[in-house]
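Sequence in, structure out. Go.
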Amino acid sequence: MECFHVWQKPWGVRIRMEGEPTDAQRAAFTVEVEAHCLTRAGTGKPWVSLIEIRNYTRSRQLSDKVAAVMHLARACGHVRCAILVDDWTLARELADAILKAGCDDQARIFLPSPQNEWGRAGAEEWAGVQAWIFRDLTDQHWSLAA
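Output:
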């Protein structure tokens, strides 16, 4: 099973993490995300990211790696990141790491409401994610659907 998916979008990068990755998959994923950050830096335009984490078996270093990638992304023109996660414990760990790294102005963590299944978030929830992630950016045509 492939545990990581990364897509280049007109507005930035969309990442999905799920399952139980091997150490080799985790290392390859980190290299891929860093390459996407550097590619975006070459455009000279601000960009955003959407990270979806579901049913993911995390490593002890996940929170630290997320914070390190966010520092790199900021240096490459990244302005904000919406993190959708289905695990309260992981959400707390990520929040602590993001605060400790000083990236809390750059990221927001969203948890689907209990009445919505993953991937079926209500239109109101998605509108809130989209409104926050694209706030103040000049390309108003951007949408998570793109």
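Check: The chain has a mean pLDDT of 78. The chain has one domain: 4-133.
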